[in-house]
Specification:
Largest sheet of chain A: 10 strands, mixed
Structural class of chain A: alpha+beta
Order of helices and strands of chain A: EEHEHEHEEHHEHEEHHHEHEHEHHHHEE
Oligomer: heterodimer
Radius of gyration of chain B: 28 Å
Structural class of chain B: alpha/beta
Radius of gyration of chain A: 22 Å
Strand order of the largest sheet of chain B: 12-11-10-13-14-15-16-17
Number of strands of chain A: 14
Largest interface: A-B, 21 and 22 residues
Distance between the termini of chain A: 30 Å
Number of strands of chain B: 19
Shape of chain A: globular
CATH topology of the largest domain in chain B: 2-enoyl-CoA Hydratase, Chain A, domain 1
CATH architecture of the largest domain in chain B: Alpha-Beta Complex
Largest sheet of chain B: 8 strands, mixed
Number of helices of chain B: 29
Number of domains of chain B: 3
CATH superfamily of the largest domain in chain B: 2-enoyl-CoA Hydratase, Chain A, domain 1
Chain lengths: 434, 693
């Protein structure tokens, strides 16, 4: 295990997110750049920080649209961030938003700037449809054909399979190394940890209930900005729409498993939703925050990323948290609230068992003792991605935002934001209330 | 210092124009003479393969003739002679024995375009600053340096007419499309393109229709007759210039070349000293003067506009169109959505003619930040409220904004009827509040009233004035009082028309008479356009404030009570179907007044406006007679062909006005009372105005 030099904590000044809405609903026509623009505009509007003071813009996005290369730059300019402020898009799959936070933090610690606008976005409605490689080769060949004869000959080489679409979203959710789509990695955890369907559905139901209650209580009021991301089709969107009222165990039980029709347990009901959304934060060094006279929302104390078997990527939080605990003085018990992203109900439940398992600690984490129990009253108290949705690149930012607001609301000090990452990684962020 | 510099590049010459100590190039008699000398020199040199005419100014080729020279022409003969000498210079340019090309980047307007037309070729940059056109008609004159002759011959009659008759401007691409320029390209490559034109020549395509119009006199006659009819309909016959232009364009295709040019010069001489032209030139100069303001504060980059109704959205679109980032707020989601749609549609119209309209629209919409809350105030340079005309609401909104705005930011209200001192009550710094009163529809109305009260700080008035200039509008500073200036002067006209109708005059007849007397629109058509509820609200404010002379005859109220609010509800004084017809509720008045009645009716509608204008001067609502004319011409088109109400009265003589008014006073009562200032001026005449520069 590596040890880490302490770099000092980084202040999270403020932040805001767009509502998270089900893919294909209100933001169905909105481009990722416009969603990210909305998050940037509203974050800046709610802060006294002037856009020209920003050192750099960092944006996480897992499925960057082909018509906005370096999405961060496009969104920043459209949001009115001045031209002289550079921008970079980062990608760590499901942790792209978190990568933007930690990348900003590292730059601050390295003295490469002291004020960063970071964000995450995913427009999952805007899934790409592609042609197979063979079609691309055929088209390239057509461009090379010079004479009429060559061209006619080339046309004869056309095959109907060239037109078979490749669905970008399905391919993005498939890990090419293990060859497994994310849902299948969840089924592996269900079998290995022997987590029955009923337990998964129960967890999913709780997530919806918690999210609905949080919304009723106005818990998200401070973290959501009402937006009209598309001026061509203006529509004020003020609230998330993922959580379902009137959901019951029976309704969940009726759903058919998606990834393993016969023996599977993972359904659309106990997995995270496909969602459109964006979120942004302002990061600063502690000195800069003080200079600006801004009372931060909270602090990022430390973070860790860890790698594991891609086929069991859902356990990423356990590995990353273990690493985080080893590299600093923070103890598991110190975390009073934990946001663990709900990619799949089974994956959260598997993490919970792994956290508490002595055997898992021995065999996989090189620890003598298990990390500890993960009680309900600490975990995702306002619901998670099963109810709120998982706009991949934006989720990392939402976890930080929701956690810091929750710490303040419940008068807690320290919290953990952690998520699993497609391709076999985990991320864990140690956060502290201001 | 000379304005024209001749340089030699091998066998090609470049004649570069750069008027010393001016930001833009204007043609004046001194630099025209100098041009003539240079052309004479060039004509004597052998072996020249070509000449490029260029400008050394940034983004300006030639902005036209000097407006003050136009004003200083004393009589017809002087005007005609000026045109002749200009024609002679350009004739020399045209007669050079080698190819010539005008290299156009930036404004190429009026005399500038006429110079370019005298060259054999024209090339223009594709830059957005490049505009070509002949706006002389808007000053009541015509292009007198050969423009009415060369343009129709180059383009053909049909494409040339809109340019000559409306003063429409074309960018490089559009100029290429109609054949006005021979090539378009990036500014940096323009001289190379010009050289290619000269060396290789250019083949011009002339459409079949243009050829037929050129060759068939009867077809040409049909085109001109149609144009004449259209012009008569549009101008109401108040302006002679378009008709003179049509005569000259006709002459371009018949008889000898010299005859056409001679006619052009003669007509210019007549027009340049005509009243309508004098008044239009005066309006132009007044508007330019109003836009001159010394202001150290930087331009507004970010603005917060509260209220997304028609006015709010119009203002937001104007600002975004000028590159200002606007946060547009309305707490009602539906109103905000509707407002954003309005802004989008206005900007779409604005960008329709752009080379990449979709992209340009997106760029402007990026400046729009719609919101339902008051976040983001701290970053703004300007806060402008456009919420409904309720005192408590305005006070609340402005109080809230004042607390969060930076100390450098402007705090403004777009009120049209409330008193500034009432609104600023409860503000921490009441001297900070300034009124910026836009007119509806914002994108078309050039006037903006800057409203100040006794308390308002001069700094804020100056900054508001600079903002209005930045937005491309014309500011007039007025003192806060009921109706401010434009509505205060417009209302007596509308009330008197209403009274005349209630006394038995037909509304369609009154509308017709008003138009004849120099109003852009009849009173009842105008009321319907504004909306009877809105107009009723304005007139009530004034009736309450000045009950001695403002009184409504009740027709407007009768229609409002019936839910007929004018054009927006399809029914008002008129019913708006396929054909406009008079509403039965108010129909049936006398349609055939006697000549005496006609005169009295016209006097009754116009004289109260003049009287009220004088009272506004007395009370210091407006600071000068010129301001009143400027505001009324731009804000209401009132007596536009006559130079506005003050110039109209001045031309008739103050004594005469006083007599007519007192006659009406004794016949119809106190609302025609003579203002003090009029009594003074009737005996001692108006004090000479401070001479304008």
């Amino acid at each position: 295990m590596t040890t880490r030099e302490s770099g000092g904590r980084v202040a999270i000044l403020s932040g805001v997110r767009t509502p998270f809405v089900r893919a294909g609903s209100r933001f169905a026509r909105v481009e990722a750049a416009m969603l990210a623009r909305s998050a940037f505009v509203e974050t800046l509007a709610r802060s006294s920080v002037s856009p020209d003071q920003i050192d750099e813009v960092i944006l996480g996005c897992a499925g960057q649209p082909p018509d906005a290369q370096n999405l961060a730059r496009v969104a920043a300019l459209r949001a009115g961030v001045p031209e002289h402020v550079p921008a970079v898009t980062v990608h760590r799959n499901c942790a792209s938003g978190m990568e933007a936070v930690t990348e900003g933090a590292l730059r601050i610690q390295a003295g490469r700037g002291s004020l960063f606008l970071v964000g995450g976005v995913e427009a999952m409605s805007k899934g790409l449809v592609m042609y197979p490689d063979s079609a691309a080769e055929w088209l390239a060949g057509l461009a090379k054909a010079k004479t009429l004869g060559q061209r006619l000959g080339h046309f004869l080489r056309f095959r109907p399979r060239f037109l078979k679409p490749r669905i970008g979203l399905m391919e993005a959710l498939t890990d090419p190394v293990s060859g497994l789509i994310m849902g299948k990695t969840a089924e592996i955890l269900a079998r290995e940890f022997q987590i029955p369907r009923e337990e998964q559905d129960e967890f999913a139901l709780r997530s919806h209930e918690k999210a609905l209650r949080a919304e009723q209580d106005g818990v998200f009021r401070d973290e959501i900005a009402p937006v009209l991301p598309d001026p061509q089709h203006p529509e004020v969107t003020e609230a998330d729409n993922g959580a379902r009222e009137g959901l019951t165990r029976e309704k969940l039980a009726k759903l058919r498993p998606v990834f393993d029709r016969r023996h599977g347990t993972v359904t659309v009901g106990n997995a995270c939703q496909l969602t459109d959304g964006a979120a942004a934060l302002l990061l600063a060094s502690e000195e800069r925050a003080e200079q600006l006279g801004i009372q931060p929302l909270g602090y990022l104390n430390d973070f860790a990323y860890a790698g594991l078997d891609p086929a069991r990527m859902g356990l990423g939080p356990v590995y990353a948290t273990s690493k985080l605990l080893s590299q600093s003085s923070v103890r598991w018990e110190d975390f009073e609230r934990i946001e663990l992203n709900e990619a799949f109900a089974v994956q959260v439940l598997a993490c919970r068992r792994a956290f508490a398992s002595e055997e898992f600690a021995h065999r996989h984490l090189g620890r003598a003792d298990p990390i500890g129990e993960l009680p309900d009253e600490k975990l995702n108290v306002n619901g998670g991605a099963i109810a709120l949705g998982h706009p991949v690149g934006a989720t990392g930012i939402r976890l930080v935002l929701t956690l810091l607001h929750e710490l303040a609301r419940s008068d807690c000090r320290r919290g953990l934001a952690t998520l699993c990452i497609g391709g076999g990684q985990g991320a864990a962020l140690d956060l502290e209330a201001a | 210092m000379s304005a024209w510099t001749l340089t030699r590049h091998g066998d090609l010459y470049e004649l570069s124009f750069d008027v010393p100590d001016e930001k833009v190039n204007v043609l004046r008699s001194d630099n025209m003479e100098e041009l003539e000398q240079r052309l004479d020199e060039l004509a004597g040199v052998d072996g020249i393969q070509g000449l490029m005419v260029t400008s050394a100014k940034r983004r300006c080729f030639i902005a036209g003739a000097d407006i003050h020279a136009i004003r200083n022409v004393k009589d017809e003969a002087e005007g005609e002679a000026a045109a002749k000498s200009g024609q002679d210079v350009f004739a020399k340019l045209e007669a050079l024995p080698f190819p010539t090309v005008a290299v156009i980047h930036g404004a190429c307007v009026g005399g500038g375009l006429e110079l370019a037309l005298a060259c054999r070729y024209r090339v223009a940059s594709d830059d957005s600053s490049t505009r070509l056109g002949l706006p002389e008609v808007m000053l009541g004159i015509l292009p007198g340096f050969g423009g009415t002759q060369r343009l129709p011959r180059l383009l053909g009659l049909i494409p040339a007419l809109p340019l000559l008759l409306t003063g429409k401007m074309l960018d490089g691409r559009r100029a290429r499309r109609v054949g006005l320029v021979d090539a378009v390209g990036p500014a940096e490559l323009l001289k190379d393109i010009a050289q290619t034109c000269m060396r290789q020549g250019v083949r011009r395509k002339r459409g079949m229709l243009n050829g037929m119009v050129r060759l068939l006199p009867w077809l040409r006659g049909r085109v001109l007759a149609k144009a004449r009819a259209q012009v008569a309909k549009k101008t109401g016959g108040q302006y002679p210039a378009p008709f003179a232009i049509l005569d000259c364009a006709d002459a371009a295709f018949r008889g000898s070349k010299d005859r056409g040019f001679a006619l052009e010069a003669k007509r210019l001489g007549e027009l340049i000293v005509s009243k309508p032209s004098r008044n239009l030139v005066r309006l132009f100069v007044l508007a330019e003067q109003a836009r001159e303001v010394e202001c150290d504060a930087r331009e507004v980059e970010r603005a917060f506009v509260a209220g997304a109704g028609t006015m709010g959205a119009g203002i937001v679109a104007l600002m975004a169109g000028q590159g200002v980032r606007v946060r547009m707020m309305d707490p009602m989601a539906e109103a905000l959505q509707h407002g954003v749609k309005t802004v989008r549609d206005l900007l779409r119209k604005k960008t329709r003619r752009h080379a990449k309209p979709k992209h340009e629209l997106g760029r402007l919409l990026d400046l729009l930040e719609p919101t339902t809350d008051t976040t983001g105030l701290i970053h703004q340079d300007l806060f402008l409220e456009v919420v409904p005309e309720r005192l408590d609401l305005k006070q609340k909104v402005l109080g809230l904004a004042e607390n969060e705005l930076g100390s450098e930011a402007m705090l403004a209200t777009n009120t049209s009827s409330l008193d500034l001192d009432d609104i600023s009550q409860g503000l921490k710094n009441p001297e900070r509040l300034v009124g910026i009163h836009f007119f509806n529809p914002v994108h078309r109305m050039r006037l903006v009233e800057i409203v100040r009260s006794e308390r308002t700080g001069q700094e804020w008035v100056t900054r508001a004035t600079a903002l209005v200039r930045q937005l491309g509008k014309v500011p007039v500073v007025v003192k806060s009082a009921p109706g401010f200036l434009v509505n205060r002067l417009l209302t007596p006209y509308l009330l008197e028309a209403e009274r005349l109708a209630s006394e038995g005059a037909a509304i369609e007849t009154l509308d017709r008479l008003a138009c004849k007397a120099g109003m852009p629109m009849g009173p009842f058509a105008l009321l319907d356009e504004v909306g009877l509820d809105v107009a009723g609200h304005v007139s009530k404010t004034l009736c309450d404030a000045f009950p001695d002379r403002f009184e409504t005859a009740g027709l407007v109220q009768r229609l409002v009570d019936a839910g007929e609010l004018g054009k927006k509800s399809g029914r008002g004084f008129f019913i708006y179907g396929k054909e406009r017809s008079v509403n039965a509720r108010v129909a049936g008045g006398s349609t055939s007044p006697s000549p005496d009645q006609v005169e009295e009716w016209q006097q009754r509608m116009i004289l109260p406006v003049v009287a009220e204008a004088l009272r506004c001067l007395e009370e210091g609502i407006a600071s000068s007679a010129d301001d009143i004319d400027l505001a009324m011409m731009l804000g209401a088109g009132l007596l536009l062909p006559f130079g506005g109400p003050m110039q109209w009265a001045r031309d008739r003589g103050w004594g005469e006005i006083a007599n007519q008014l007192s006659a009406l006073n004794s016949k119809h009562g106190a609302r025609f009372a003579t203002p003090k200032l009029l009594n003074e001026w009737a005996t001692n005449d108006e004090p000479a105005p401070v001479p304008s520069p």
